C-alpha cells in the first residue's frame, strides 16, 4: 500500500467558504450570544490538499468547483498553501458556505450548518483522463457521494484510476450525510477504493458496531486498508479484518477542532507519497491533527 516518492497527489473534493463563529458556553435562544466570527477558506477536499502540501507532499493538485463570487480568493489561498488548484467556475451556483459554530469550552466541539453550493455540482464533464498524468495517488472527498452529479464524477475518476493502476483513498466525510445516503449504498459506491479514512462515528455507523476497533476491522474486509481517526484517542490501522496498529494521539489542548480530520488525512497521504508505511503515515496524521486543533479554521499555516 505504499508508493515511493516522485509523483503527485490529486485531490478531488469540496472547496468551501467557512464562517467560523466561536462562542463560550450555551447559545442564548432568542437573543445575542457574544462570539468571535471570521471568514476563512475551507472545504474537506481543499483542506486535505493544503495539509498534504504543508506536510511535504512533493506535488499536490486539487480539482473542485466554486462560484464566480470567490474563485480568485480561493485560488490564492490554495496556492499560498502550496497546492496547484484546478477550480471549475460554476455558471449558476455560488461557492459553498459552511457556518462552523464552535463552543470554546470543553473540547472545542463544533456544529456545521452547510450550504454545499457549487461544491457538489462537480460532474463527469469536469473530469479528464489527463488529470491523472503524473499522479501516483488519488484522494476523493466523501462529500462527493452526496449528490448525483458528483457521484457520477466519482465513478468516472475511480474507473480512470483503476485503468492506470493509481491507488485511491476516500474519507467518508459526514456521519449525518451518510445516514441519509445509506450504508449499503455507500459501500457499493466505494467499491474499488484502496484506503478508507473514516472517523470513529463514521466507522461505527458504516458497520453498526459500537466499538471503533471492531468497526475498523470489519470495514477492512470491504476496503484493503482502513485508518480510523479517533481524535484524542489517536488512530487505528486495520487490514484484512483485523486491527494491525493503534497509534496514539499527540496530547494538546484544542482551540478549534474544525478540519482536524482533514489535517490527519492530508499528512497521512503526504507520508505515503514519500514512501512511509501506513502505520508511520498514521503517526504523521496524528501529529498534523494535533497542530490543526490548536489553530482557528481547517487550514495549515500558509507556505513560506
Describe the protein's architecture and organization.
Helices cover 32% and strands 26% of the residues. The chain is globular. β11 (225-229) and β12 (235-239) form a beta hairpin. The chain contains nine helices and 13 strands. By secondary structure, the chain is of the alpha/beta class. The protein has one domain (8-15, 43-95, 118-292): 3-Layer(aba) Sandwich (UDP-N-acetylmuramoyl-L-alanine:D-glutamate ligase). The mean pLDDT is 93. The relative contact order is 0.17. It has a nine-stranded mixed beta sheet, with helices on both faces. A four-stranded mixed beta sheet has the order 3-2-6-7. α8 (260-273) runs antiparallel to α9. It starts with 7 loop residues before the first strand and ends in a 12-residue tail after the last helix. It comes from Streptomyces luteolifulvus. Residues 9-301 form the Carbohydrate kinase PfkB domain. This is Sugar kinase.
How many DSSP E strands? Answer: 13
Task: Give a short account of the largest sheet.
Answer: 9 strands, mixed
Shape: globular
Please state how the strands of the largest beta sheet are arranged side by side.
Answer: 5-4-1-8-9-10-11-12-13
User: Structural class, please?
Assistant: alpha/beta
In percent, how much strand structure appears in the residues? 25-35%
In total, the number of domains comes to 1
Name of the CATH architecture? 3-Layer(aba) Sandwich
CATH homologous superfamily descriptor: Ribokinase
Are there runs of 5+ residues with pLDDT below 50, and where?
none
The CATH topology: UDP-N-acetylmuramoyl-L-alanine:D-glutamate ligase
Count of alpha/pi helices: 9
Helix content: 25-40%
Radius of gyration from the CA trace?
18 Å
What is the straight-line distance between the termini?
Answer: 31 Å
Q: What's the overall average pLDDT, rounded?
A: 93
CATH level 1 class label: Alpha Beta
N to C succession of SSEs: EEEHEHEEEEHEHHEHHEEEHH
Domain Carbohydrate kinase PfkB: 9-301
Organism: Streptomyces luteolifulvus
Pfam families: PfkB (PF00294)
Protein name: Sugar kinase
Amino acid at each position: 500500500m505504499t508508493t515511493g516518492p516522485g509523483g503527485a497527489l490529486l485531490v478531488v473534493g469540496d472547496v468551501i467558504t467557512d464562517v467560523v463563529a466561536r462562542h463560550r458556553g450555551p447559545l442564548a435562544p432568542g437573543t445575542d450570544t457574544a462570539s468571535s466570527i471570521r471568514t476563512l477558506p475551507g472545504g474537506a477536499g481543499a483542506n486535505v490538499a493544503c495539509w498534504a502540501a504543508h506536510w511535504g507532499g512533493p506535488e499536490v493538485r486539487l480539482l473542485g468547483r466554486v462560484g464566480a463570487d470567490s474563485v480568485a480568493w480561493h485560488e490564492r489561498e490554495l496556492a499560498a498553501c502550496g497546492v496547484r488548484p484546478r477550480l471549475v467556475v460554476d455558471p449558476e451556483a455560488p461557492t459553498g458556505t459552511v457556518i462552523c459554530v464552535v463552543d470554546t469550552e470543553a473540547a472545542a466541539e463544533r456544529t456545521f450548518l452547510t450550504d454545499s453550493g457549487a461544491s457538489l455540482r462537480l460532474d463527469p464533464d469536469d473530469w479528464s483522463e489527463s488529470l491523472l498524468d503524473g499522479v501516483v495517488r488519488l484522494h476523493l472527498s466523501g462529500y462527493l457521494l452526496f449528490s448525483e452529479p458528483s457521484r457520477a464524477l466519482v465513478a468516472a475518476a475511480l474507473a480512470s484510476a483503476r485503468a492506470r493502476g493509481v491507488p485511491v483513498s476516500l474519507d467518508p466525510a459526514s456521519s449525518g450525510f451518510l445516514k441519509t445516503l445509506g450504508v449499503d449504498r455507500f459501500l457499493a459506491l466505494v467499491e474499488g477504493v484502496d484506503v478508507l479514512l473514516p472517523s470513529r462515528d463514521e466507522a461505527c455507523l458504516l458497520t453498526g458496531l459500537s466499538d471503533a476497533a471492531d468497526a475498523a476491522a470489519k470495514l477492512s474486509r470491504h476496503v484493503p486498508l482502513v485508518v480510523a481517526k479517533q481524535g484524542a484517542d489517536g488512530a487505528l490501522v486495520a487490514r484484512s479484518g483485523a486491527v494491525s496498529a493503534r497509534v496514539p494521539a499527540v496530547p494538546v489542548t484544542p482551540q478549534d477542532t474544525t478540519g482536524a480530520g482533514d489535517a490527519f488525512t492530508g499528512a497521512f497521504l503526504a507520508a505515503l507519497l514519500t514512501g512511509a508505511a501506513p502505520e508511520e503515515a498514521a503517526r504523521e496524521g496524528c501529529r498534523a491533527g494535533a497542530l490543526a486543533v490548536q489553530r482557528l479554521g481547517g487550514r495549515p499555516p500558509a507556505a513560506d
